[in-house]
Records
---
Amino acid sequence: MLYSCLDHPENEQKTDQKKDRSDKERVESEMKEIKISDMKAMDPDSYVLIDIRDEGSLLYGGIPGAVPVNKEEIFKDCRKALSKLSTDKVWILYCQRGEVSQSVADFLEQQGFDAYSLIGGYNAYLISVMQSEPDDLMEKQKRAEASIQKKYHKELFSKFAKACKNYQLIQEGDHIAVCISGGKDSMLMAKLFQEIRRHRQVSFELTFLVMDPGYNKANRMLIESNARQLGIPITVFESDIFDAVDTVEKSPCYLCARMRRGYLYSKAKELGCNKIALGHHFDDVIETILMGMLHGGQIQTMMPKLHSINFEGMELIRPMYLIREEDICKWRDYNELHFLQCACHFTETCSTCHEDGTTSSKRLETKKLIAALKKDNPFIENNIFKSVENVNLNTVIAYKKDGVRHHFLDEYEKKI
């Protein structure tokens, strides 16, 4: 059941058995691995599942029952980092794709622990979930919709509707392309659009648009499987963005995000849409504000809507603007849903990037900073958000509007 990927019975030789046993022990020490199917067949009480992905990746979900442990802490002092785990059980480690966990499991094996790496990592688990798609898809869909209407109505739908009203995101006669990346945010956004249209306060059309920028087969299938389970009629089109940015060394994530948005605008306009909707939420907004200040030396925010510069007559809207990420995660976990993380060629080593082109390291660093500040000030998140609503130009040294720079000295003498 537990085995080395290079240790197969058919490869054993009948001669020189002593050497074979030595080779076997060496290979098992170097690459002890286990398939997801074999792990599921084991007694759950016989092993401990350890999630070594970074904190940013954990937000996308994990395997139920897994214990998150920082891989850097394992290398630093494995006995301290894993002190709360039973050494009487097998330790099964997983990362995003089963690559990083190999080296960590090998390290632990050398320290005397019975450690294995999950082949394919979290992605393998997602594929197994997809392959065991429930027979009664309608029941899964109804549960997800009921949780929006009742259990998470205040946290999700009310804030969605509030953003649409306050920022005038939906107008009579709109045809909105709901852009679905395959992640938790955009999938929930699609369900919220279906729910708000059900209320029939405004007449508008929806197209649930999925762009395949070069996903592998498994990732494409996961998006399609989730769409079926949630009752979202997606329209899929393909592009070669991943290949186009594959050789770019400087800011590939930023370029990828810009190209994806351009493709989405173009396809949406071709389909008769006048707006595209993206799934950025409240946490994205406040993180962007701080990142602009700390890393960009500027005060700006992610706007709830804006006119397209390059596609005449098109607008971009963000109806998830007021929804907290933790509430999105609660809805996902309550409905036992598993969504796609960034699946581009640059994330093969278990990192992640974001729709706006920023990498997880900067986002995660900013997220941790906000969490640390919140310990002393529970209002810190709302205060960051309100800071860009309460800008007093009389107390600003300089600002730009429509590309023109204005300095306080320009008007200073006129106020005497």
Note: DSSP finds 17 helices and 14 strands in the chain.
---
Amino acid sequence: MLAYIVRRLLLIVPTLVGIMLAAADALQASREAEGARLVGFIRDRIDTIEAAVARIAARSPERVVAHRERLREAVRELAREVGFDVTRIADARPLDGAATAMRARLDEGRLDGMEWITADRIARATDPASLLDGAKSFVVMAASYWDDVPRPPVDPSNPRGRVARYAWGRDYHDVLREAANEVATGLTRIAGSPVRTRTFVDSSPLAERAVAIRAGLGWAGKSTMVLSPGIGTYTLLATILTDLEIEPDAPLAKSCGACTRCIDSCPTGALVAPGILDARTCVSFHTIENRGLIPMHLRPAIGEWLFGCDDCQDSCPVNRRPARGRLADLRASTPDDAWPALFPILAMDEPKFRARYRRSAIWRTKRRGLQRNACVVLGNLGDPSAVPILAAIVLDAGADSIVRGHAAWALGQI
């Protein structure tokens, strides 16, 4: 804004000078004495204007930085008001390091099964200028989704599975996008002039974790998660890219040190090295993104996980005292949101599945995927009470072939 005012004044002043001098010369020709006094008056005014412009143009860099810092604090306050726990700012330079790492994972085949992750998408996700013209700053906001829902009492006639915490409440894409859009709208009020923005919540083409690390919201964990002081890894990110220049935060000078608990706790060994995840063996990938058969050698390691997996996060010492999330819509409404009963899931038709999960992140795996996963969990639990319903699925020629195949596997385990 300051630079804009200076530029406009510098453009206007020469025009004003020319008009005033021309008027003065005309008056001087007709009224020498009176015109001389007027010329002197006008020249005094010109000197005043030019001096004011010079003072504005010569403002110190410290004042500019102070202005951007005030913007940063105002943005943080607004984000806190709408429910985000931590907000940090990053500049909008290209994310070259993230681009290199993502291309390497793609070339190594570690992203197989996620067809939407292409070289072109990686290029866009790491080039802010391609996502918003005139991009200057990222506003990175984190919301804790941690909550504690104790396991219901064990009932042999009603076996249950587990759902990853981030999917306990309403679909986080919707919850965070609504909150982030409030902040994006507020940026114009904070800046005092219109600003351009684009909001990202996970599904959009942006390397959000790389932006969060640059912004100092957290550091890169060996689990590939962002570890944020005070709220740990149980965080969901929303990011606003804007053409408003805001003073950036510094990255954190932290690391996981020698700790490898997340790597050691991964049930399938999908964390093949610090910060490197092989999606082909990841429980979360297979219970959410995989639309076909889950490899048989991985099924026992899935354990009770019906949707997603929190093992690497549950083992992380940074999560010893996690902060309960402030966005209530991310929390479970009932114990069944966190520990779903499996028999009702296997009995669901499409309308019942839609009614139960349409506004949940679980919707992504579709009914076939959820029922397939339920069969795997029942096989791992080894509960004989599951035999009748699993056998009915196997014998039902009209049942989905993927679900039937996993039900047969589960019967073999029991």
Note: The chain has a mean pLDDT of 89.
---
Amino acid sequence: MRTTDLLALALGNVGRARVRSILTILGVAIGTALVVLLIALASGAEENVKRSIFSIGDLRLVTVQPFQPGASGLTAVPRTITDDHVAKLRLIPHVTGTYRQFDAPLGTLLEGGDDAAVRPQGIEPNAPLDRGDLVAGRHIAAGERLVAVLPANLARLVAPTAEAAVGKQVTLRLGGAVKIGQTRIAGSGTPREYKVTVVGVFDERNTSQTSVRIPLDDALTAAAENRGLTADDMRRITGYSGVSLETEDSKYVGDVVSSVQQLGFSAFSLKQVIEQIDQGFGVFRGILAGIGGVALLVAAIGIANTMIMAVLERTREIGIMKAVGAAPRDIRALFLAEAALVGVFGGVLGLALGLAAGRAIEEVIRQLNPRTNPPGIFVVDAPLALGALALALAVSLVAGFLPSRRAMRMSALSALRYE
């Protein structure tokens, strides 16, 4: 039997029992729509989480922390990162940049009042921490001293706008008691005041609102004077607060993390976080797909029931087809084609329903949260759409296999005698 004849017969038979076929197609459509809707919403949630992480930092970066590897929180064992260790970190393969960081004592921005607490971070020029988030001014340059890059919220305490704050001289009182929110921290050492010039203002929304970026040497000097030591003493005794390693490509991050751990330090990378998110959302999508699969299973039972009824109702017709020379494989192909048409129609309708429902849910969420305005809550890509259609077709073919096999094996003589 030619393919065109087969499809024409199948389409005519599906349309013959119109109400039954429509109900069966709706069952497949609902199952497909549920699969598309749940997986698309999970994919949208994953994309939003990843987008937030991407905005925090570069996936090529590895942060070395002054703790032994394999421990965190209260169980973390501190270690000192000295210049000797930094030299070894620079020799790790695929590391293209090494940037030290030192956290100076907590303090206060005097121009902002007692509530303007600051956490000075001593960094090196072009450090990953000090890239791409400026709203005014510039970053810290090589060899500069007594300069600072303020968060926008603190800059507004110094001048009406971020641009106006650039170039102003402010006073940082570091050490001693500091008020953070409603809590007053005793601090350590004797407070000292440092006049610094604001050279830049950064967007504080992706970082701490109390963080102030200053040159690394200034941070070491402030900490040393707070404790009555020298900057060299701080490098040797206290060590650095952390080191950022920049790799050639994110694919080398895992190897660099392993090398850092072999040197005895804890290492952290956003690349690892992304991989954990992928694993977690993979399981989540599987669970949601299983929930939608239950609906498709119910639809498959409906398809099987419809096809069995079709075989019983058309028993004499099957006998006549066999009597005039139709091969058993033609009978099987005919009923499988009818099941496939139900799957295709149901899959297309289900995909449309899923898309419509997803857009409606996305619009409701945007209306409820107009300020957040997430870029993509409901994500349907080509693999998901094609996969949903293929799943609907596969379920229909599986459900129609036994009825088609029964029709194929039916005796022509018995079929002609059937009443």
Note: The chain has a mean pLDDT of 83.
